[in-house]
């Protein structure tokens, strides 16, 4: 019986080591994305072709590129936004859905992130809270006017809205163990842009 308890202890230590390693890799990837986003913002979105500043309509980042930051004042967080929403992109930060537009383009902008990494404490978010998105070509502030909870496979939240709306999604319930069956969705509307 003593060997069985030793086996459980060793298995537990291995699990902790694997979790620790994965956590450190995710943190390093997020820090690197944040540095890349801040560098891009500082450069002012200069075009590589002609050195001229770009605008929202000319912005065309590569997949997995760090494209900007999302500030959540309520949570005292500033997080990198990465192009794409597949697992590789979400390991680096908040993902921007490829077929949605960018701030300043007058339509739906969709950002997604994990509830247990970038959107930890997202259960504190309320209507009236703000998000600030900083891109290489400008800063955009949005105020949350509506939230909803939808099934994980409900794609009806991705749609043409006829106006600029920042849609931020994460898994729900927030403290669920395993793959969460629903999504928490916020709809935030522009209050200021520069």
Ordered list of secondary-structure elements with their pairings:
Layout: H1 2-42, E1 66-72, E2 77-83, H2 87-90, E3 94-96, E4 108-112, E5 130-135, E6 138-151, E7 165-172, E8 182-193
Parallel strand pairs: 2-3, 4-7
Antiparallel strand pairs: 1-2, 1-5, 3-4, 5-6, 6-8, 7-8
Report the sheet with the most strands, covering strand number, pairing sense and barrel closure.
8 strands, mixed, barrel
Looking at CATH, the homologous superfamily is Sortase
| SSE topology string | HEEHEEEEEE
Average pLDDT confidence is 86
How large is the radius of gyration? 19 Å
Which CATH architecture would you pick?
Beta Barrel
Number of helices: 2
* Sheet with the most strands: spatial strand order: 1-2-3-4-7-8-6-5
Distance between the termini: 68 Å
Helix content: 10-25%
Structural class: alpha+beta
Query: Rough shape?
Result: globular
Q: What are the low-pLDDT stretches, counting only 5+ consecutive residues below 50? A: none
Per DSSP E runs of 2 or more residues, the count of β-strands stands at 8
CATH class: Mainly Beta
CATH T-level fold name? Sortase, Chain: A
- Indicate the proportion of strand residues: 25-35%
How many structurally independent domains?
1
Description of the structure:
The protein is α+β, with helices and mostly antiparallel strands and 194 residues long. It has one domain (2-193): Sortase (Sortase, Chain: A, Beta Barrel). The protein has 2 helices and 8 strands. The chain has an 8-stranded mixed β-barrel with strand order 1-2-3-4-7-8-6-5. β1 and β2 (77-83) form a beta hairpin. The chain is globular, with a radius of gyration of 19 Å.
């Amino acid at each position: 019986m003593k060997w069985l308890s030793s086996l459980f202890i060793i298995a537990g230590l291995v699990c902790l080591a694997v979790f620790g390693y994965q956590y450190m890799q995710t943190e390093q990837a997020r820090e690197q994305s944040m540095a890349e986003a801040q560098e891009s913002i500082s450069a002012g979105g200069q075009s590589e072709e002609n050195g001229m500043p770009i605008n929202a309509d000319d912005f065309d980042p590569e997949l997995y590129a760090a494209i900007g930051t999302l500030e959540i004042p309520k949570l005292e967080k500033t997080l990198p936004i990465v192009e794409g929403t597949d697992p590789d992109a979400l390991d680096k930060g908040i993902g921007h859905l490829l077929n949605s537009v960018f701030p300043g383009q007058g339509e739906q902008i969709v950002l997604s992130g994990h509830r247990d990494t970038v959107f930890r404490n997202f259960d504190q978010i309320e209507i009236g809270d703000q998000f600030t998105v900083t891109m290489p070509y400008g800063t955009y502030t949005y105020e949350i006017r509506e939230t909803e909870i939808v099934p994980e496979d409900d794609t009806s939240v991705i749609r043409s809205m006829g106006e600029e709306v920042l849609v931020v999604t994460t898994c729900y319930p927030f403290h669920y163990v395993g793959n969460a069956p629903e999504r928490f969705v916020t709809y935030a509307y522009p209050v200021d842009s520069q």
